Each structure stands twice: as C-alpha cells, then as structure tokens.
Amino acid sequence: MKLKKNSKTINFFYFCKNYWMSQKLLLSAEDLHIILFRLACQLKESHGDFDQTLLIGLQPRGVRLAERLLHILTHDYKVHNAQLSKLDITFFRDDFRRGDKVLNPNVNNMEVGVENKRVVLIDDVLYTGRSIRAALTAIDSYGRPAEIQLLTLIDRRFSRHLPIQPDFCGRQVDAIQNEQVIVCWKEEDDEDAVYLVNK
Fold first, then answer.
1. Residue 139: CB partners within 8 Å, gap ≥ 6?
2. What is the DSSP letter of 181?
3. Exposed, middle or buried: residue 126 (CB in 10 Å: 0-12, 13-18, 19+)?
4. Number of Cα atoms under 13 Å in the Cβ half of residue 169
5. What is the mean pLDDT of residues 51-59?
6. What pLDDT is recorded for position 10?
C-alpha cells in the first residue's frame, strides 16, 4: 500500500509500523485469486451474458475490484457484454460538510445509463453501510434500475449501522471497532493482499 509522506512514496508496512501497532494477514494473493474467480463465477451464473447488466464500482477502492472482476469475466469466462461504470459518492455522503476537512471528489464515469438495468454495485469493504446508502441515492439521479445487487470483497458483518447486506461476498470478517481492514492491490500497492490492522 503506497502513501505519501514528505513527497516520498512509502509502503503499507512502513505505514503499519509508524501508525498502527500490528497487522494480520487475512488474505494472501493466492486467496484473493481464488475469491475473485469465485465471485466472477457467481456473477456469471446470476447474470448470464450480461446483456442487461451494469457493473458499478465505487470510487476509489471499489473500482479496482470491479476492474479485476471485469477482466476475469471478459478473458476467462468470455463475457463480452459486461460494462463497467465508476461512481463517486462524495457529495452524497451523510458526513458531507459536517467536518472541517475538505472532501475531494474522485472521477465520476456514469456514461452507461442505469434505466431498467440490473445493476451490481461493487465495493471492497462493507463496513457501516453508509457508503452503500450514499451510492444508492447517487444512482437514483441517473435513472431507475430494474434491480440493484451488492458485491463486496470483505464484509465486516458486525459493524453495520444500516440494514444493508451483500448479495455476493468474498469473505466475512469479524473485527472490533479499533481494527481496520486494508485491501491492497498490486496495481497500486505493489501486492495483492488483505490485512487486519490495529490502530
């Protein structure tokens, strides 16, 4: 995991060493590989040729997961109708303008319409459910889908603030309040892995 400090790139392990007490490996690269193929297979079983399906990745971290799944669907399962949009929910969050910190939006790419589509909303970690609620509100501004499903890599099942549950889940994780789940992707973080870190 790369972070910026004094204009230099530092990795996930440096970050854990300096900002958290300890970290535990939840999923290795091999584990992630298996889970991604399982999730892609479940999507293929549920959505067939994806003719009426739209994948929507939540910016920023859900997009990387969505891109991985799209690659597997296209290259391994030969699904050529799958489409991916990227949704930014910054201005739909319930904590927007509630703090002093300025929230910077990510790129929003919703060029494919959602009207009467079977939408699969994709995010890396399902925690309180508030981000998903914001995403549902944001999607409403683009049309009325026929159906919305939720896919998440990690489900922190005992941390929910809202009655939101995933339709597709990679792994359920039981974590206490002072623990954080960090998903690392090779394209951005130099490795594929999921860690549980103590603050």
1. 56, 87, 114, 119, 121, 145, 148
2. E
3. buried
4. 14
5. 96
6. 45
